[in-house]
# Entry
Amino acid sequence: MSPPLSSHGVCTCRPRAAPQTQPSSRQRRKKAGSSGTLVNQAIRPLAKAFEEKYPGIEVRYSRADSGPTALKILNEARAARLQADVFDGTGTVPPLVRAGLVAAYLPPTAANYPPALKDPDGHWICTNLYFLTPGINTGLIPRETAPRTLQDLLNPKWRGRIAWSSNPTAGAGTFIGTVLRRLGEDGGLAYLRSLAKQQIVSVDASSRAVLDQVITGEYAMALDIFNHHAVLSAAKGAPVDWLKLEPVAAPIQVASLLKDAPHPNAGKLLLEFLTSEEGQRIFAAVDYLAAMPGIAAKVPSLKPDGGGFAADILPPEVLAQNTDHWMMIFKDLFR
# Structure
């Protein structure tokens, strides 16, 4: 659902003394890294609206990081005590697909989504988007002097003034990966070797925490922060802005139905609601970036169609296949 890029969780829906003709219950898992706004800001209003739409179903949810979420489901499945019906995250899906635990199911609403935002095998559909961009302290970097291209980041004046999170899926890893995908392996590595000379500070914290350090002036700029975090902070008076510096990494939050979900019908209803226009407008209303085309962000420029920038969509399979390689480059060049 929103920030950190990377967040995960679990939700369970149980019947409120519903008759047999109604779906009994369902769950859903969310991928949340260090930020708690995912639950407080998005899941609660979504669950409330869903329960009002389907009064016979109660939604229960819990959160955990991506690895623990996948491990929890795997352990439950091995013990034949599966609790969740639906799970979500930016990278939780691949290991569960390999284990044969994910249903091949897309809700009818999937017809409204482009191919890049739904799995061709039916294992997931995107619920909301993330765009990772540089963020700057506008008191330290006037907007007119801010870098506009990858090449601009190599200007010696930025040496020692840039930070990024060491997080693999919302920080150094995604920046490195998107550069390689844009410039190719050889060209990307050549660029990254030059960038390493800029003495980028690696912070073992979330991209949100790194952005907060930019806001306080500890660093002038952060790479690969969630662009909507900068807008939320700026709205509260913080001296911060985000830059449309391409390539923009775009990991996506996706949701899936478990094959042996204890309440599959309710789980299907939940997936359909999350990806319906009603559900997507709730995402947008609580400052998340809805995946459904045509649902604008509160600040339209945060999304490519309203902001005039291109994004490199990073589906779960791309992250699963490449993150280890990207982080090896990070350790070789930037540690």
